[in-house]
């Protein structure tokens, strides 16, 4: 059973075929038969239309929709009735029958989705059905879709039917280490700070089990759902078989405030007679062990691992059986003797009993005890909304290299396997040896000169496995992961290599790449090989940092640094269906917000760094994700619910920033992090302190003003507009510099005239209108003078690209990034990177799998493909359409093709050019109209359907042929000879 978000997308694909006269000939529906588990009481039903090649459907083709929700039998009567209106009158929403909701015919400009809106509330743990139909432009209803189903989850804590949080033991409240506690020390009962002990009996992970029998008549199960949470992570099984295919469930949260549960359809795992549920728990971020010899970035210990679950079994006779977690469960020790999200894992296979999660296991003889009900539990238990983490790809070794002893090249101490790709993942090994043999796996991004794993920049991480029997065994870690390309193996020899010491033999080795399983939303390729490789480079860093939150890196930190969410958000949404992850990030921000309104740089905030002062906690460029991301969701997905839900957080953070400002200027924070200056990367080198923070502050205020207007808070809106004007004036007074130029014009620049300073002032609309062109000239002049080298960092580079694109300087973007001789994307590739690195220089001393600098990805879609979608634009305004198609055929590019799966459906662009000809193919989904901008060539006349309204328009520094294009498949050509 697939889990969906609170506002669930029940995707349906509608194919529309039209005659030349515009009349609908036929409507075919294709629906998913998958049951969907939702947790919201007002789910969002949505659908999308697509058009076949050669067909077209205009926005006016569909004029309304109707959604019905209820029982299967009742809805089948309605949709099969020759008079469905009469059938619905006889049933009615409040008649006590199976029709829960009838939206009626809805005539609206929004044909994307409908929210459940009925006086009859959906009940938790229930199965419902729904269908939709539409009206054509002639006002005639089109036949109903087939029924689709969804299942509601558990709305409240009481819906767990008496289930308790249980554990093997409970950490004393006085021993808990929570975010904000001193890094490696904690106060004892006497108030004196004391060193923490290293290692406890609770280093071994707990196991839980429960045996039960089916109770329903004839054991005829209709459906069975396991609702379960385990902190920090869990693996569940029924009758010895793993439940689902997730990894590292549930998602990480601020455990003082919230924990997440997950739901699984387990109908096929239950059998007649006795059944056994088994649950193994991992530490995750809930309990980071403090043990010598094992790496930890931070130390946080909310409590020892614990779990809660309800198995809900619905029988065909209407009865329901619940199996819940309580003291009747038994608990024992796992063979995993140590596990850390940061340090790795140690498992002793000799104490593994493969029958522990089966009904016939003798728990008493094995020394198992009754579980205890624990009280140190999170305040709230919510259903996980983001897509689960799964094993998404697998890699096998490209080569194996001997690890040579330092100073003795003749002595082999181990073997290192090159897996070919740096990614987030876990090793999977098949090893042939003797019981008690021990192997150690050390994954790494880089290698030392002797082929040993180089973990100097990423933390000392290891995986230890003691073979549990003689012969071939298969093993992988359960509750940890790392970022790596190479795997060093100690204590074993690759198959086929000399083995004088009769060590275990590595029969097979794989990297299992794990990431958030969000579906891909876009594809891009072009004729430029460097750009294709750059696209893959960035995409691997994205995939490696998508788990239950967006992390900075998959090894040394695994933390949710927030600047990436808004700065890389657009690049992410072009590539993956990340809306659930963005909503999860906002939830984490709400939970992380302090009483005085601060949004810290990391959410969830598992540690408060004690070094660097507030520099690594209070940066407006990071915390402003709390304001910017809800607005971006509105722009990208047409969903204003996140603005409503997060408005209070947004206002409180603005109040915090206002309180920190000195004469309307903010000075705190990291600035343009990792810009390219004369010193090693870190805090901003080229842009003065306060410039980027104040620019973001102004941007926040403009967003808040638009949000307040949208939500009807006029008084708030007026206040934000006034404050924004004051910040703009102060910004220009402090950072704007002007001087006469020899040509008689004015030279103007911001701060030091860095790429970031000028670009952010332009992007945020801080530049006075009379100086706009002067600032653009200065920005472009500086880039050209530097030999087209980039210097902007984490904060500034996205804005630099956006401004150059908007102003028509796409050729400059091409020249800056189509090279390998200076630090940048090509430079990283030339130095062997397979995922985007933390520094432009691909330094070995920092992470080599970060996605914070991947801003060029956005330009691949918005620039080279020219797909720009902003759903805040009015679709009925010919001069301001929501979709613009403006492909940039720059540099040596001969062709490009790609797609973006928007909320309306796939937007596709493919173009190719030769010396005297340009051809462009565009697919626009139903419901959208686009402004098409074709490259202007004097004397040329574009050919194609719908070009009768063609005009010539200057946009930025370029001229275009411009026309309005409706939905459908379109082909255009321009002879430029």
UniProtKB/TrEMBL annotation:
GO terms for molecular function: alpha-L-rhamnosidase activity. It holds the Pfam family Ig_Rha78A_N. Keywords: Hydrolase. SUPFAM superfamilies: Six-hairpin glycosidases. Residues 520-863 form the Alpha-L-rhamnosidase six-hairpin glycosidase domain. It is an enzyme of class 3 (hydrolase). The keyword Electron transport does not apply. It catalyses: Hydrolysis of terminal non-reducing alpha-L-rhamnose residues in alpha-L-rhamnosides. Its EC number is 3.2.1.40. Residues 415-496 form the Alpha-L-rhamnosidase concanavalin-like domain. One of its GO terms (biological process) is carbohydrate metabolic process. The keyword Hydrolase applies. Residues 220-393 form the Bacterial alpha-L-rhamnosidase N-terminal domain. InterPro entries: 6-hairpin_glycosidase_sf (IPR008928), 6hp_glycosidase-like_sf (IPR012341), Alpha_rhamnosid (IPR016007), Bac_rhamnosid6H (IPR035396), Bac_rhamnosid_C (IPR035398), Bac_rhamnosid_N (IPR013737), Ig-like_fold (IPR013783), Rhamnosid_concanavalin (IPR008902). Residues 884-941 form the Alpha-L-rhamnosidase C-terminal domain. It comes from Arachidicoccus rhizosphaerae. This is alpha-L-rhamnosidase.
């Amino acid at each position: 059973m697939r889990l969906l978000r609170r506002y669930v997308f029940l995707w349906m694909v509608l194919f529309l075929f039209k005659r030349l006269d515009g009349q609908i000939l036929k409507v075919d529906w294709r629906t998913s038969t998958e049951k969907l588990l939702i947790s919201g009481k007002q789910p969002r039903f949505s659908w999308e239309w697509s058009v076949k090649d050669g067909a077209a459907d205009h926005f006016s083709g569909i004029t309304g929709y109707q959604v019905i929700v209820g029982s299967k039998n009742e809805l089948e009567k309605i949709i099969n009735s020759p008079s469905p209106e009469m059938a619905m009158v006889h049933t009615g929403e409040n008649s006590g029958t199976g029709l829960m909701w009838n939206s009626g015919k809805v005539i609206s400009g929004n044909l994307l989705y409908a929210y459940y809106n009925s006086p009859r509330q959906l009940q938790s743990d229930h199965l419902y059905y729904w269908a939709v139909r539409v009206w054509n432009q002639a006002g005639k209803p089109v036949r109903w879709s087939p029924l689709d189903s969804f299942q509601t989850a558990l709305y409240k804590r009481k819906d767990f039917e008496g289930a308790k949080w249980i554990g093997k033991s409970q950490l004393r409240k006085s021993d808990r280490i929570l975010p904000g506690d001193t890094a490696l020390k904690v106060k004892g009962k006497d108030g004196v700070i004391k060193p923490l002990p290293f290692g406890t009996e609770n280093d071994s992970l707990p196991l839980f089990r429960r045996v039960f029998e089916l109770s329903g008549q004839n054991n005829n199960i209709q459906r069975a759902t396991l609702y379960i949470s385990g902190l920090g992570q869990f693996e569940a099984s029924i009758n010895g078989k793993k439940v689902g295919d997730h990894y590292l469930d549930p998602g990480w949260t601020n455990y003082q405030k919230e924990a997440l549960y997950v739901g699984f359809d387990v109908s096929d795992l239950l059998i007649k007679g006795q059944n056994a549920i088994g649950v193994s728990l991992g530490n995750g971020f809930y309990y980071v062990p403090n043990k010598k010899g094992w790496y930890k970035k931070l130390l946080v210990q909310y409590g020892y691992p614990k779990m809660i679950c309800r198995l809900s079994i619905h029988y065909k006779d209407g009865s329901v059986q619940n199996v819940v977690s309580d003291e009747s469960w038994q608990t024992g020790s796992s063979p995993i003797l140590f596990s850390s999200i940061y340090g790795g894992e140690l498992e002793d296979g000799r104490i593994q009993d493969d029958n522990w999660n089966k009904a016939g296991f003798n728990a008493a003889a094995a020394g198992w005890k009754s579980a205890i009900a624990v009280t140190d539990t999170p305040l709230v238990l919510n259903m996980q909304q983001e897509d689960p983490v799964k094993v998404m790809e697998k890699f096998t070794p490209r080569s194996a290299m001997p690890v040579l002893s330092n100073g003795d090249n003749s002595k082999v101490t181990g073997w290192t396997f090159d897996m070919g790709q740096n990614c987030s993942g876990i090793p999977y090994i098949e090893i042939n040896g003797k019981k008690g043999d021990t192997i150690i796996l050390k994954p790494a991004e880089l290698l030392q000169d002797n082929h040993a794993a180089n973990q100097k920049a990423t933390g000392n991480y290891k995986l230890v496995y003691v073979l549990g029997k003689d012969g071939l065994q298969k093993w992988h870690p359960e509750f940890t992961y790392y970022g790596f390309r190479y795997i060093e193996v100690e204590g074993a020899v690759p198959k086929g290599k000399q083995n004088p010491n009769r060590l275990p033999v590595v029969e097979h080795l794989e990297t299992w790449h794990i990431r958030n399983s969000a579906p891909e939303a876009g594809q891009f390729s072009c004729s430029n090989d460097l750009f294709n490789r750059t696209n893959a480079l960035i995409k691997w860093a994205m995939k490696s940092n998508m788990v239950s939150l967006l992390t900075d890196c998959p090894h040394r930190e695994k933390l949710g640094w927030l600047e990436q969410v808004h700065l890389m958000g657009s690049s992410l949404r072009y590539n993956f269906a990340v809306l659930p992850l963005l909503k999860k990030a906002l939830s984490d921000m709400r939970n992380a917000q302090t009483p005085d309104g601060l949004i810290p740089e990391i959410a969830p905030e598992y540690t408060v760094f004690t070094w660097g002062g507030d520099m690594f906690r209070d940066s407006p460029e990071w915390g402003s994700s709390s304001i910017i991301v809800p607005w971006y969701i509105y722009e990208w997905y047409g969903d204003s619910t996140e603005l409503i839900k997060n408005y209070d957080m947004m206002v409180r953070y603005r109040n915090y920033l206002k309180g920190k400002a000195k004469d309307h200027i903010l000075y705190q924070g990291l600035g343009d992090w990792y810009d390219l200056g004369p010193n090693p990367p870190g805090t901003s080198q080229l842009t003065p302190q306060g410039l980027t923070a104040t620019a973001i502050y102004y941007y926040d205020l403009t967003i808040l003003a638009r949000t307040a207007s949208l939500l009807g808070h006029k008084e708030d809106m007026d206040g934000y507009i006034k404050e924004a004007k004051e910040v703009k004036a102060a910004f220009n007074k402090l950072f704007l510099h002007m001087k006469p130029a020899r040509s008689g014009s004015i030279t103007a620049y911001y701060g030091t005239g860095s790429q970031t300073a000028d670009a952010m002032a332009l992007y945020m609309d801080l530049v006075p209108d009379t100086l706009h062109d002067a600032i653009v000239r200065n920005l472009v002049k500086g880039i050209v003078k530097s030999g087209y080298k980039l210097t902007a960092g984490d904060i500034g580079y996205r804005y630099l690209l956006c401004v150059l694109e908007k102003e028509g300087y796409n050729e400059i973007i091409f020249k800056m990034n189509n090279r390998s001789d200076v630090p940048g994307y090509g430079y990283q590739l030339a130095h062997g990177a397979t995922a985007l690195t933390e520094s432009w220089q691909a330094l070995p001393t920092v992470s080599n799998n970060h996605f914070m600098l991947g801003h060029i990805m956005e330009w691949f879609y918005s620039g080279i493909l020219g797909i720009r979608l902003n759903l805040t634009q009015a679709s009925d305004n010919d001069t301001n359409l929501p979709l613009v198609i403006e492909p940039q055929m720059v540099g040596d590019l001969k062709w490009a093709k790609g797609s973006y799966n928007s909320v309306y459906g796939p937007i596709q662009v493919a173009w190719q050019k030769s010396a005297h000809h340009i051809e462009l193919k565009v697919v626009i989904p139903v419901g959208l109209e686009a402004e098409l901008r074709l490259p202007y060539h004097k004397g040329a006349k574009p050919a194609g359907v719908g070009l009768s309204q063609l005009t010539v328009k200057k946009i930025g520094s370029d001229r275009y042929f411009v026309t309005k294009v409706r939905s459908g498949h379109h082909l255009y050509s321009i002879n430029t000879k």
